[in-house]
Amino acid sequence: MELLKNLPEMDLMRSEKMTFVQLIIPVESAHRAISYLGELGLLQFRDLNDDKSPFQRTFVNQVKRCAEMSRKLRFFKDQIHKAGLLSSALPTLQPNVDLEALETQLVEHEHELIEMNANSEKLQQTYNELLEFKMVLQKAGGFLVSGKSCETAEGRELDENVYPSDYPESASLLEQATQSGSSNSSGLRFISGIIPKSKVLFFERMLFRATRGNLLFNQASADELIMDHVSSEMVEKTIFVVFFSGEQAKTKILKICEAFGANCYPVPEDLTKQTQITQEVMLRLSELETTLDVGIRHRNAALHSIGVHLTIWMNMVKREKAVFDTLNMLNFDVTKKCLVGEGWCPIFAKPQIQEALQRATFDINSQVGIIFHVMDTVESPPTYFRTNTFTNAYQEIVDAYGVAKYQEANPAVYTVITFPFLFAVMFGDWGHGICLLLGALILIAREGKLSSQKLGSFMEMLFGGRYVLLLMSLFSIYCGLIYNEFFSVPYHIFGESAYRCRDSSCSDAYTVGLIKYRDAYPFGVDPSWRGSRSELPFLNSLKMKMSILFGVAQMNLGIILSYFNSIFFNNSLDIRYQFVPQMIFLNSLFGYLSLLIIIKWCTGSQADLYHVMIYMFLSPFDDLGENELFWGQRPLQILLLLSALVAVPWMLFPKPFILRKLHAERFEGRAYGILRSSEIDLDSEPGSARQHEEEFNFSEVFVHQMIHSIEFVLGSVSNTASYLRLWALSLAHSELSTVFYEKVLLLAWGYENILIQMVGLAVFAFATAFILLMMETLSAFLHALRLHWVEFQNKFYGGDGYKFKPFSFAAMADDDD
Prior knowledge:
The protein is of the alpha+beta class. The chain is 59% helix and 8% strand. The strands form 4 sheets. Strands 1, 2, 9, 10 and 11 form a 5-stranded antiparallel sheet that branches. It has a 4-stranded antiparallel sheet with strand order 4-7-3-8, sandwiched between helices. It has a two-stranded antiparallel sheet with strand order 5-6. Helix 2 (27-40) crosses helix 10, helix 17 (535-568) runs antiparallel to helix 18 and helix 18 (572-603) packs antiparallel against helix 20. The protein is extended, with a radius of gyration of 42 Å. The chain starts with a helix and ends with a helix.
C-alpha cells in the first residue's frame, strides 16, 4: 500500500490540482489586469453577479459600445465581401489605438460608406431606369411602326399574342387601328414599359381580364440583363406595349402596372422625337457609367484602407468586449474602490498569475497593488488536463462520454493504446492498414498548412483525429500481419508453411486437408489455412477466444482503476465492498473461462469449453470426463461458483448498513472522528453525512447500491458477450475483402478482354476505397468507441465533472476558427 502511494504521479492520470482564489483589484488596474489574465489564459472566473440581468451590471455601457463596434466591423466585412475584395489575413500593425479613438474612427468610416452606398444606389437606379428607357424606346418604337403599317398591309399578323374581344358585336382594337387614320382620331392610346420576364404571363392575363379583352398586348425580350433595385440581382426583363381605348382602361392598366412592379416610360409616336430622345438617353448613360466607375473606385479604395486593419480591429474589439464581460462577473467591495473576483486556477499557474497581476499594477502606475490569495470552498473544482496535439484527440474521445470528475482516474491514458488496438483487431489487414497510414501521414505532413485553413466539417474531424488514424493504421498493419491478410491475400512473409499436400497433385487439399510436416509458422496465421476446409472453423475459434481474452483483460483493468480511485479518494468502503467482490465475481466466471482458453491453446486439448461452462452451473458435482483440462478442475469450479454466489450479496448488503451506522454514530457524537475526509464518496453517495446530514435516506442508499450491484452482475455477462463484436467484425471484414478480391478482381482478370479487366480493376478499387476503407473504418471505429464507453469506462469512470474553461484570448480565437 505504501509503495503504491509513493509512486510518481502521471501527467494525464489525474487532472491538474486546482485551487480557489480571490482577487481584489483597484478599479484603475482592473482593465489591464483582466487583459493580462486573458493573455495568460489560466484563470476561470466565477460569476458573482449571476442574480443580475445583463442590463443591471456595472460595465453594461462598455459592453454595448463594443457590441456596436462589432456590428460596424461586421458591416465593413460584408461590404468588402460584396465588393469582391479580400481583407488582409496578416494585417499591418498600426500604433496602439485606444477604444475611444477606434470608436470615432469606425463611426466616420461607417458614415462615409453609408453615404457612398446611398449615392451609388441612387446613381445605379437612375442608370437602370435610363437603360430600361433606352430598351423601351427601341422595342416600342418598332411596335408603333408595325402598328401604323397595318393600314397598307392588311391581313398581316403581329408577332406577339393578340387577344380577341369577348364581345363579338364590338369591333376589335386592331380593326379600329386599321380603319382609323391615326390614333388620335380613333381614340386609340398606348402605354409602354418594362417588367420582369417571370411576371409577364400573369401580367398579361390580368390586363386581359381587367379590360375584358379590349386591348392589344405586344411584348419583346430585353437584349440585356438589368439589375433589380430590390434584390440587387441581374434579371431578365420584357418590354411591353399595351394598346387600349378609353380613360377608364388607362387607369386600370396603370394600377395593374404598379401592382406588378412594371416601370412605364412615355414613348412619342413621332420617329424624329424618338431618335432625339434616344440620343439624349445614350449620352446620359455614358456620363452615368463614368460617374459610377469613379464612385466604385473611390469606394473600393476606402474599403481597401479599412480591410488592411479590419482583422486587427475585430480582434481588438472582441478582446475588449471579453474583458468587459469578465469585469461584469466581478463585484465592487464596500468602498466601491476595488473589484472583487473569484475563480479557479491550477496550482502550477499561481506564480504566473501573480506575475501578470504585478505587471498590470506596474504598467498602470497604481499606488495600490492587487491582492491575490487562496480561499477554501466546498465546491467541486473543474477538471483540467494538459494535452498536446497527440493526446488531445484521445482526450476528446473520452470527454465526449463525460468529463472526468476532479482528480478522477483518466481513461484517456489507456485509450491512447487500447482504442486503436481494438479497432485494429476488427480491421486487421496490413494492405488496408498501409492505405490508412498513407492518409494519416499526408495529414500529419501538411499539418501546418491545414491548421491555418478553414476546413469542412468532415475534413476538420479527420484532421483533428490524424494521430488517432496514425495509431489505428499501425495497429491494423500489426494485426494484419498476425492474420496474414494483404487485401485478403495471404503471403509467406516469415518463412515456409508448416503444412503440405498429401501427394504431388494436391487434389485432395481442400477436401481431406493438408498434413503438417514441420514446426509451426513463426508469426501469425499460417498462409496454408486460406482456402482449406478448416479455414473458417479455425479462424472463428481463434478470433472468438481472442475477443473474450481481450474483453476480460480490459474489464479487469477497469475494475483495478476503480481500486486506484478509491485509494486516491481514501474511500475504504468501496475497496472492501465493491472492488473485492467485483473482482471475485468477474474472475470466478469469465476469468476462469479465459484460463481454460489459454490452457486449451497450450495443451492442444479437445475439451468443449461450452460444455464445461454450462455444466459448471447445471451440474457442478458431475465428473468432467474428456472435458477435464487439468487435475483438480472440478473442485476449483465448485469453489469459483460459490465465490461468485457469495460476491453478489457482498456487493449488495454491507455498504448501505455500514453507511447508516456511521451516520447514526456521527450524530450521536460517539465517533465523530471515524468519518474522515472521504470515508464515503461524497459526490456519488446520496445522503452524504458530510454535506447533507439531515437528508440521509437509507432506502435511497440501499436502492442505489442494489441497482449498482444488479447492473454489474448482469453487465459482466452482457459486456463479455459484447466483446465478441471483435470476432464478428474481423470475420466480416475479412470475408468482404475476400469476396471483392475473388468475385470481382480475379473474375475480371480471368477474361482475355482488356476492357473487362479494367472495369473489374476499377470496381475493385472503388469497393476497396469506399466500402472497406471508409464504411468499414467507420464501423470499426464506432464499435471500438462503444467498447470503451460502455464496457470499459462504466467499471470506474463517473464522468460527471465539468471542464476547466479559463478566460483566454487564445481560446476565443480557436472558437472563431
